[in-house]
Amino acid sequence: MRLIPQSFIDELRQSSDIAEIIGGYVQLKRSGRLLKGLCPFHSEKTPSFTVFPQNGSFYCFGCQTGGSVITFIEKAEQLDFVEAVKWLANRAGIEVPDDGSSDGIGLLRRRIKEANREAARFFYRQLYTTAGAEALAYLHGRGLTDKTIAHFGLGWSPDGWDKLSKHLISLGFRADELEAANLSFSNRSGAPTDRFRNRVMFPIIDLQGSVIAFGGRTMEKEHQGRKYLNTSDTPVYKKTNNLYGLNWAKATCSQSVVVTEGFMDVIAMWQAGITNVVASQGTAFTAEQARLLSKYTSTVILSQDGDEAGQNAIRRSIPVLRATGLDIRVLQIPDNMDPDEYIKAHSAESMRSLINGSVSDTEFLIAGIISHHDIDSYDGRVRCLREICELLGKMNPLEQEVWAGRIAEQLSVDKSAIMSQLGIISRKQRRNESREELKAMAQEITGGGTRSNPERQQHLRAAKAEESLIAAITLSPTLAAGLEQRLPPESFVTSMNRRLYAAVLEQIKNGNEPSLMMLEQQLTPDETSAAARILNSEPAVLATAGDIEQYIAIINEERARPTADDLSGMTDADLASYMQALSKRKK
Hints:
Layout: H1 6-15, H2 18-23, E1 29-31, E2 34-37, E3 49-52, E4 57-60, E5 66-68, H3 69-77, H4 81-92, H5 104-127, H6 133-141, H7 146-152, E6 155-157, H8 163-170, H9 175-180, E7 184-186, E8 192-194, E9 199-205, E10 211-217, E11 228-230, H10 246-249, E12 257-260, H11 263-271, E13 277-279, H12 287-294, E14 299-302, H13 308-322, E15 327-330, H14 339-345, H15 348-356, E16 359-360, H16 361-371, H17 378-392, H18 397-411, H19 415-446, H20 454-458, H21 460-475, H22 483-486, H23 495-509, H24 516-519, H25 525-535, H26 545-560, H27 564-568, H28 572-586
Parallel strand pairs: 12-13, 12-14, 14-15
Antiparallel strand pairs: 1-2, 2-3, 3-4, 4-5, 6-9, 7-8, 9-10, 10-11, 15-16
Helix pairs in contact: 3-4, 16-17, 17-19, 18-19, 21-23, 21-26
């Protein structure tokens, strides 16, 4: 990929306030010159995610992920580098000089979206053919109007081996592009074979209006295969990062959004005039989906099947959604009906009343705990209260006070006993949080755990000198004058720092400012994270030419130090000489 010009990177950096952008995804709190919050890329209770506004970078001391605002958007929006640049440029209202569309992955993503768009058109047209009459009758039988069918782009995949594939190939698409889109696969003879056959088709559309995937439902009650067949993950689609219908719901869900399970629930509710609804597509709710919703709404109303599996899905979703700061309510539909069935049996107005009467997540969870215990027995009541107290222990003191009173009255126990148990739980949580804080501090001091870079831990003295040198010449490129001749990259002891050092020197030689935004075009994600940590190390801010000399001396000294293998191969005389020389050096 041709590097995006330094001038544009500078313009993009000046136009992209990293604190404002990341603040749209993470609740940040100021800590001196820095901003901290809970990391959006891993689960944690103590904030270790740090934003450094002064140099436009972020770093998590928990999962060791870091980079510039481009890296953040890549991860948060599941984009590649060029797409993240375009996303930021579009937000800032500036034009990207080279959109990178000729690059392999960028071109493939564009072609997949184009193939999906043509496939959606093909499926819709097939619905209104003679062969598609059964599928159209099925949708009409589900109560959908032609207007609704057109709005959601519903269609039918013909019952043939290669009808879609032949159609798309006739439009200029290649077989490998169709496979990448998960629209077809190669049979034993290598011929393209349609993935979706004789199914009602539901296009899945992203927030920009592009068709990125499909869900296909069989119409046969006695069908032996899978009821639903969905697009697998592709370069443009990841199921756990998307919500069906959000492209339509985002305009009306600022106050609340109903999260249902399936396509038909969304469509039936939309047709009934309830448009603030999305579907999780039958999967367990993910942190990525929760963060996505938090950008558009303040309250999530969960609606799943009334069976045990559906209720368990709600219980698993609640902590994931709570981590984003969303308010959560639970929609309870009578007789284990789904929204589609309930609207047909009653009315849209009745469904709205149910939505308005949805209960808080706490009320739902407590009711579930009580229903699973025999509260008429002594042991059952004690176990029930312990479980409820564990739940209340995660709340703030005001909520605990209110709920303790309600539970005490409901279960006929003394409120003070509940508050006493909550105090024990609170003290235990504080001890655990203190341990997590100490662990995070240790990671911050050492620069990450051995899990991410064991080589660094093995050569810590050399690694720290290398990192200080990299940070120094990045912040003050004039300190790099003549440095490559004295200390070429191959002189570095650790391999990751060696690659970072070479990348910084290359940028300086090319006359570019070696900013993180510029460097990460050449770096892997792990290297970008390491660079973010290194560039935010305090010693580098005050580095001088004298410091550079000290770093060089340490690196050379550590490189000359024999390894464990070298020592094991020494004769007794050689080892004695080495130990004597080392002793003199320490004096």
